[in-house]
Amino acid sequence: MRYRKSIKVAMALMLVGLVLIALYVMRAEALAWHLWHQLQGAEHNGLDLGRYQVAIEAKPLASYENTSGLTFNHETGTLFTVLNHTSVIVELQRDGTPVREIKVHGTDDLEGITHVEQDYYVVADEHESRLWLLQLKPGTSEVSVTDANLLKFGMNERGNKNFEGVSWDSVHHRLIVVKERDPKYVMSVAGLYHPAGHKQNQMVVEHLRQYDFALNWALRDLSSVTYHEQSGHLFLLSDESRLLKQFDEAGQAMGSLALWKGFHGLHHNVPQAEGVSIDHEGNIYIVSEPNLFYVFKPPPAAIKEI
Description:
One of its GO terms (cellular component) is plasma membrane. This protein is mainly beta. It has a single domain (about 45-300), classed as Neuraminidase (6 Propeller). Helix content is about 15%, strand content about 40%. It is built from three helices and 21 strands. It is globular, with a radius of gyration of 20 Å. The chain starts with a helix and ends in a 9-residue tail after the last strand. The model is unreliable at about 15-25 (pLDDT under 50).
């Protein structure tokens, strides 16, 4: 009798384990969160992500590999991405056509890039937990981090789960930085760069805890971040959850873009989303490893002043 009871308990535990594994594989918590926000209707003070449709899907970026990080330069109207094993920055047209390559000497694990203003960009080295402020002029074809301003602040551990994405917030003159996992979090760094071009003397680092609930509950990792200045909203990209999530300044979730087959016109899942940026028209650009390029656009009627 005891033997039969033990078998039943073991089978029940095994069934529960299989259900949990299935839910994890299907990313059920992320899917539920996405569908919940879809049911809430359109957002009135942000991007109406539910109505976005893919315009360019999985376009290969030439022969490049390991694309990671993406930023839009509003002054040039072009995008910049990084290749993290070859330490190359690639400038792209908005349809994904390469414009030029810039070799970065002195680093071998670039993960993030963001445009600050004029010719200035911040790039992130994940393995070394370092951020550099680089000047990339129109004719620049190579640059060395030894000639750049190095930013280090309290996080000096080495490894592959450190700085994963960066985004410049010109409204508050701060850099938004995300850490991939263990633990994953969002922080801001003020004092890195002054809009007049002068480096400030004191940096202020703040853990933005208003996003912690979402990170702990439904975003399995953080692969990139972008700040949308027109709405004041933060967009967090999760490769493992296959979601781009929109948040207001208080950390309230405001809808999402699902990167699964069947959503937003996608014919296939986005395999490994690593970089995201948004242009002045509200178009969303995503790069995925190994070298895939995506553009999501709102319907014409949804384009509005925010």
